[in-house]
């Protein structure tokens, strides 16, 4: 296997995540797209780790950090979505126009 | 670069199958008309990513991904979907009607990133040929050289947990507040 294969898969996942982020109008689905982008980053980190073969597995350590921060992000993000839904009865970003002009 | 290197040998065939599954499921995540289907396609996509990690020799990370994403994050997502669903049961307006510009942007981004990686690394850089990474080495790195970032991440997780509970907790009504003070 060559490094490029993994980089191209990572680029595809990231682009799909960007598309979802721009197109989706539901807050939960936007968070799902962000998860896709974070997975793409993880693929790149692990692929470069495998290529460079550092003695301390630095790439994998950072991938663990990314997974942890992603879990924290989902927890807080969904709590915010829940609160917005409770107050506004919607989870559609187009309906949340209070702080827009 | 040659197509030959991409399709030669069983390892590459396996890789192509897994990669196509990952990308197909990711596409369904952003195009599905049902929110629950979207979340379940993310499970399949993450499972595919875990297989890619296994192919790269990152055993611990692959199982951590399965545990964290498929075990915990997806349950959270399904929970969030069930709670924030419109009472009518219809999933309307999940996507914007203007799709052409974002699609164009995503395709250009993909082309640019792939082109840059191919220019930079060509086909000479090999990966995933050695033995799987030693989990003991990973643990020593986490609690040795990276112990301070590790503690910071633990702190972030605790803060996020407390923040999530604080945000999502239902505020007491004035009546309940009085009752509590009476106790």
Please state the average pLDDT score of chain A.
88
Q: How many separate helices of chain A? A: 3
Mean pLDDT of chain B comes to: 85
H-E order of chain A? HHH
Distance between the termini of chain A: 51 Å
Order of helices and strands of chain B: HHHHHHHH
Radius of gyration of chain A, CA atoms, in whole angstroms: 17 Å
Proportion in helices of chain A: over 70%
Q: What fraction of residues of chain A sit in β-strands?
A: under 5%
Overall, the morphology of chain B is extended
Q: Which chain pair has the greatest contact? A: A-B, 71 and 90 residues
- Shape field of chain A: elongated
Helix content of chain B: over 70%
Distance between the termini of chain B: 75 Å
Low-confidence stretches of chain B: none
Low-confidence stretches of chain A: none
Total count of helical runs of at least 4 residues of chain B: 8
Question: Could you explain how this protein is built, in words?
Answer:
The complex is a heterodimer of chains A (101) and B (183). Chain A is mainly α and 101 residues long. Helices cover 77% and strands 0% of the residues of chain A. Chain A has helices at residues 3-23, 27-52, 58-88. In chain A, α1 packs antiparallel against α2. Chain A is elongated and about 50 Å long. Chain B has 183 residues and is mostly helical. Chains A and B meet through α1, α2 and α3 of A and α2, α3, α4, α5 and α6 of B.
Q: What's the SSE blueprint?
A:
The complex is a heterodimer of chains A (101) and B (183).
Chain A: H1 3-23, H2 27-52, H3 58-88
Helix pairs in contact in A: 1-2, 2-3
Chain B: H1 4-7, H2 9-31, H3 35-55, H4 59-83, H5 100-121, H6 135-143, H7 147-168, H8 174-182
Helix pairs in contact in B: 2-3, 3-4
